[in-house]
Amino acid sequence: MTNLSPLTEVAPEVPRSRNRWRGLLPRWSPKLGTGLGLAGAIVLFGLIGPLVTGDPATIRDFGLTPPGGEHLLGTTVTGQDILAQLAHATRGSLQIGLLVGIMATVLSGVFGIVGAYAGGVVDEIFSLFSNVMLVIPGLPLVIVIAGFVPPDQRGTGTISLVLAITGWAAAARVLRAQTLSLRNRDYVAAARVSGEKTWRVICVEILPNLLPILASQFVFAVVLAILSEAGLSFLGLGAANSSTLGTMLYYAQNGFALQRDAWWWFVPPGLIIALFGGALALINFSIDEIINPKLRDRARRARDVVAVETDTAAAEQDAVLTVKNLNVVYQADTPVHAVKDVSLTLRRGEILGLAGESGCGKTTLAYAINRLHRPPAEVTSGSVTFHDRDGEDVDVLALAPEELRAFRWVKLSMVFQGAMNALNPVTPIRAQLQDVLRTHRPGMPASDREKRCAEVLRLVGVDPARLGSFPHELSGGMRQRVMIAMALLLDPQVMIMDEPTTALDVLVQREILNEIKRLRDELSFAVVFITHDLPLLLELSDRIAVMRDGEVVEYADAEEMYLRPQHPYTRELLASFPGLNDDRGALIR
Amino acid sequence: MTTLEVRNLSKTFHKLRAVDNVSFTLTPGRTVALVGESGSGKSTVARMIARLVRPTSGEILLTSSDGEPVPRKAYRDHVQMIFQDPFASLNPFHTVEHHLVRPLRLHGRSRAEVPHLLERVSLPPDFAHRRPHELSGGQRQRVAIARALAPGAKVIIADEPVSMLDVSIRLGVLKLLARLQREENLAVLYITHDLATARHFSDEVLVMHRGRIVEHGPSDEVLTRPEAPYTRQLAAAAPDPDARFRQGGQP
Amino acid sequence: MNYYVRKAAFYLAALWAAVTLNFVIPRMLPGNPVDILMAKLQQRGGSVDPAARQAYETLLGTGGGGSVFSEYVAYLGNLLRGDLGVSVSAFPAKVSDVIADSLPWTVVLVGLATLLSFLLGVGLGALVGWKRGTWLDALVPATTVLSAVPYFWLALILVALLSTGLGWFPLNGGYDVVLDPGWSGEFIGSAIYHGILPALTIVISSVGGWLLGMRNMMVSAMSEDYVLTARAKGLKDSRIMIRYAARNAVLPSVAGFAISLGFVVSGSIVTELVFSYPGIGSKLLQAVQNNDYALMQGIFLVITIAVLGANLVVDLLYGLIDARTRDRSVVS
Fold first, then answer.
1. Which residues belong to CATH 1.10.3720.10 in chain A?
2. Which is the most buried residue in A16, B157, B188, C232, by most CB within 10 A?
3. What are the residue ranges of CATH 3.40.50.300 in chain A?
4. What is chain C's alpha carbon radius of gyration, rounded to the nearest angstrom?
5. What share of chain A is helix, strand, coil (3-state, %, to 5)?
6. Parallel, antiparallel, or unpaired: how do β-strands B155-159 and B187-192 relate?
């Protein structure tokens, strides 16, 4: 009887942070630094600049002075100081950007978040409305509206409102999609079960998790507003009596700044818009990385295959695959030794079970055998030798890229976990099976290819008429059968199966297991079967290796392991699966 | 003593009868297992009892210890739920404390009970300040159990509480549930796809298939001598190394 | 509901919304456009009889008299007949004729530039995503900063550098004015020559958006199991990149076409002004500057319909490239 206190289980090692907001802050990167620095400088210029640069409207009698001297950025055609104008204009543009950003974000929140959370008819109507607003082009609408409003009534508020109304829809769509996914999270259901009110569920449970997306959409709305306002002002349709970078460009254009080579009048306002937009885009990259951690920068990799001992030592008789002292390390800031000195031998036609819990390194080991591991994982030492039917030994870790490509699937094929995503969702089954033949049997006539694909499908009990089906049209069990059929295409000598039945129901799992046993008996390939389910392995495999923390702690015949488990961890695992026919209650009371 | 009775419960989604005329009773101090495959409707039953999904027809009757029906407003004081995925059932943004204080507050209890709640699920009191990503799967599930206990609930719906956990810690969590059930005389509905734990951790079992209860009875009887063809199929499909080695049969 | 039926229903709703918006805006906003128009008309020597006035009132609303509903019905009737009123800025031309003259210029320019920008952005994005961790990564911030540059500013800088400075391209216009518009080789050549710089502006400003979106999706797609399967199958890298990763990664870019097209069209309107391009954008601004409300509304309607049409085509194509959408019955 095991007595597992919760503290024996290793908690994930993460830096303790008392501050909940810490997790929401972007990771520091040069991009983020540049972005924040630039944006900060421009905001500061807009805030402080107008206080120190003097009156931008003062007219002097020396127009179009080039930069330098008293007027750092030169003067306009009427002798006004460009730097002073620029400071005021920057402030104006930032104000409008901020105002529109806030309004648009609120609008998108109401239509995106509330609609998606409410669901049903409200969601349908809100979503239809957002989508309609989205496909109606924004600027033409703004131009038409601005055109109808007499200039004396076109205030900053009106323009901001119009820009916000035409600019929120895209963000609402993004927020809706994310809210729909959050709404179905169990923690939202749990909050409802504890009796939380709807507004509290939205504000306290959902909203904080939307913050990165809201931030990114806000930043985007600010950039869009500044750009649109600039366009509008440039067309002479901006707010009356306002001073923004757009109006500055309007006056520069109408004063023929470029034609008179007065680049100092025309270039700076546009440059500030571009720099500010670029800075916010850089900040947004970092926010995107919080939303989708896959986007984080990866360190460049210098080496791919590392010097390995090519000591393809005397192979066991009848072996088809020998793994010797294999070590795989994840080269992170603190390297993780995921596979430690593992040695295994797979005999011809046998089923070798690889058992272990999540994070024990079993999948890393399986991928390393076929060199499918990706950076930062790296094979640091050891050897993988494939013993071909014709007696030739292949040092898998030493294969050149083209040789490796030719080795894969021909000698050793794989069946992955969760067949939903292992099949390409956008092409029919036929194309995915034929791909293998096209690549590895280039000379094969099309009719033979078709025949072979139908043949392997029949082998696994799938109607060849299914060749034209897309993956989503098949049930989970059927998809896993197709995966196995694909693995059979080239008649490989080894098949590695990574949790092939985990996502399936018991009855379907039973069918697939029977299918694997039957095919193995008929076609006599060897199987490495990876799973966390030790009883399943005990029933299915010839030999079993139990892995823990990257090490093989026990490696024995299935019967031996079942009757006389040696390692305490094996015993613990075995005890974790009460048998249906064991004495009832022995485990609890 | 709170008793929950489910009468002729049905739920239809887009013309599909997900739950079809299901009836059973949860009584204090007993665990009822609801066994079925994915899509059998067992989770929908759980969500209807937890008032997350509205039943198409049928009744859920809650009777308090004095024999009176529990008023609608007080329903959630009595009935709470534990979810399947401990990685999804805690809000990544909030601390463990938030997850426990909210249900305490909502049901008129004091936040001073947090350390006691943690103790009941065998977690040290300083865990209150941790956030979900600092906990292992098993620890998260213990927090989820504490959250369900916080309102003082007497009926606990446990929807596959260990299926997402690593095998070596499953028993620990199940034992905790069993201990709490004994000590606090809870009525527990244990939903699972695993016949073996259903037998070991429940007094009664309901086998569900395509929305219907196909077999019902004491766990020992139903699971060792199944009557319904579907239950037999399920029992035969589970991996069983005994058959291979004890009876000397090699496949 | 069938995917195609649902899409058609959505675009009908959007069309109705645009048409109605067009009807409501002049009635909701301050000012009295009809009086302004009549005054302009008089200046140009047009007839100011009650019939002309009534035509404008149907379009823009009245100060009183006549129910809004009957105006709405009359407005819809006029639209169905293609009658968008008379332009005052191009008097006595009809609005529909003004639009018919300028629309092809814009459709060809914006259409080709958008297509070019989409292909370039998606292609580069796929490559940058695939070759992640190489120098190509620098393309992402570089092009994104370019999309934060105002279209018109970039256009003017390009003109100053490439046309005024180097003399490589004409300053403005859609074709050499000494030529007669027609299907002659010389004219088409001149039109292409004049179109290069405006198109270049649009491409430079919009390529970053496509590139970033595609690159991010490519990065996500590359960690999917089907790409791992493809690698395990020993397929060639180019095949995995195109048939497996990019084929899936491009879907959101196509689905998000609506959003991006709106931006491109908005930007190109201002670009047309800079180049005095004879397209619909210049006409819209000309209409706004001359208070030519009828023309403004007509152009807005036509632009909207064109964008809706383009989106409809893209949506229908999307149904072809992703089989899952066709089978999904619930609204996404």
1. 83-296
2. B157
3. 319-411+493-575
4. 24
5. 55, 15, 35
6. parallel
By the CB < 8 Å criterion, does A236 face chain C? yes
Instruction: Please tell me the CATH code under which domain A319-411+493-575 is placed.
Output: 3.40.50.300
Locate the chain A residue with the closest alpha carbon to C212.
A285
Residue C285 amino acid letter: L
Given a contact cutoff of 8 angstroms between Cβ atoms, the answer to whether B163 and B193 are in contact is yes
CA dist A548 and A529 (Å) reads 16
Residue numbers of A between 337 and 376 with CB closer than 8 Å to B: 357-358
Which of C16, C137, C231 is the mutation pick for testing A, counting most A CBs within 10 A?
C231
**Cβ distance of A6 and B195 shorter than 8 Å:** no
The end-to-end CA distance of chain B, in Å, is: 52
Q: Is A125 on the interface with C (CB under 8 A)?
A: no
Q: Which of residues 315-334 of A touch C (CB under 8 A)?
A: none
Contact, A423 vs A483, CB < 8 A?
A: yes
Amino acid at A387: H
Residue B156 to residue B147: CA distance in whole angstroms: 11
A2/B contact by beta carbon, under 8 A: yes
Domain ranges of chain B: 3-245
**Cα separation, B5 vs A517, whole angstroms:** 46
Identity (one letter) of the amino acid at C299? Answer: I
Task: Please name the residues in contact with B208: beta carbons below 8 A apart, sequence gap of 6 or more.
Answer: B22, B34, B35, B36, B40, B41, B42, B45, B214
Quote the minimal CA–CA distance from A299 to chain C in Å. 7
pLDDT score recorded for residue C144: 81
Angle between helices A245-254 and C151-158 (to 10 degrees): 30
Q: Closest approach of chain C CAs to the CA of A405, in angstroms?
A: 4
- Model's pTM, two decimal places? 0.83
Residue A338 · residue A329 · CB < 8 Å? yes
Contacts of A137 in chain C (CB under 8 A): 261-262, 265-266, 303-304, 307
Task: Give the 3-state secondary structure of A175-243.
Answer: HHHHHHHHHCCHHHHHHHHCCCCHHHHHHHHHHHHHHHHHHHHHHHHHHHHHHHHHHHHHCCCCCCCCC
The mean pLDDT value for B15-29 works out to: 91
Size of interface A-C (CB pairs under 8 A): 253
CATH code for the domain defined by B3-245: 3.40.50.300
Dist. CA A427–CA C54, nearest whole Å? 58
CATH no. for A83-296: 1.10.3720.10
Question: Tens digits of per-residue pLDDT, B218-249?
Answer: 988 888 889 999 999 988 888 877 777 765 54
C109 touches C279 (CB < 8 A)? yes
- Evaluate whether C322 touches C14 at the Cβ level (below 8 Å): no
Number of helical (H) and strand (E) elements in chain A, helices listed first: 22, 10
